[in-house]
Amino acid sequence: MKRALLIVMVLCGPARAQSLFQQLVDTPAQVGTRQELRATSMYLVEPPEPRVFRVHDLITVIINETSKASSDQSLDTKKEVKNKDTLTSLLDPMQLLQLRLRGGDISSLGLLDLRAKHEFRSDGQYDRNDKLSAQIAAEVIDVKPNGNLVLQAKKSIVMDGETKLLVLSGLARQEDITDANTVLSSQLADLRIDVQHEGQLRKSAEKGLLTRVLDTLFNF
To answer: Could you tell me the residue range of the domain that residue 141 belongs to?
Structure first.
């Protein structure tokens, strides 16, 4: 009797263990929903909601533009012209009326002896460095179907009779705008920056009428 019971226990033990393992594998653990985690977990970090930009929203554009232009040109020309004309004979008018073309006797007569020589040499060099650093609040004037933002900004500063006007426009991607609501000017597409100065300082830097006329006449 004991031997028969032992045999039955040996045969049933592995079968029971195998069915328990199979049950654990076939029944995956259920993951709680976000609402359940929010109600039970103290360490749940909610992801930030995507920001929605609308027309008339303001975004700060950080301008840091540097441009450098350099040009060096040299021109050297030389021209020499020689022309000498000599008259050796004349037509007799009477023979010309009779359709008899015959050259009359005449000694060689020099009519024109022209010599011209022209030399020109010019050297020119141009260097210019410009740098613009500023911050300006731009307004969203349009939102494209793909989410890109059309920005436009205008800033006018008047100080001691001097007026400085800064106009900016460009196209920005929403992902380039930081959490501080700023975007770099280098990240804007179709960027256009127009800086104008008005006042006595501007006028004093302009060339006078006589200087402009002389530059036009002797522009070499």
So the answer is: 58-69+127-217
- From the list 133, 122, 130, the residue with the least C-alpha distance to 70 is 130
Single out the residue of 154, 156, 157 nearest to residue 167, CA to CA: 154
- The two tokens of residue 149 are 């933002």
Instruction: Say if 108 falls within a structural domain.
Output: yes
The residues near 179 (Cβ < 8 Å, ≥ 6 apart) are none
Number of domains composing the chain: 2
First to last CA, the chain: 127
Domain shared by 91 and 140, yes or no = no
List, for residues 151-194, the tens digit of each pLDDT value: 999 999 888 888 889 999 999 999 999 999 999 999 999 999 99
Q: Are residues 102 and 190 in the same domain?
A: no
Length of the chain: 220
Using DSSP bridges, classify how beta strands 182-184 and 149-159 pair: parallel, antiparallel or unpaired. unpaired
Whether residue 141 has pLDDT greater than 90: yes
Verify that 202 and 113 share a domain, yes or no.
no
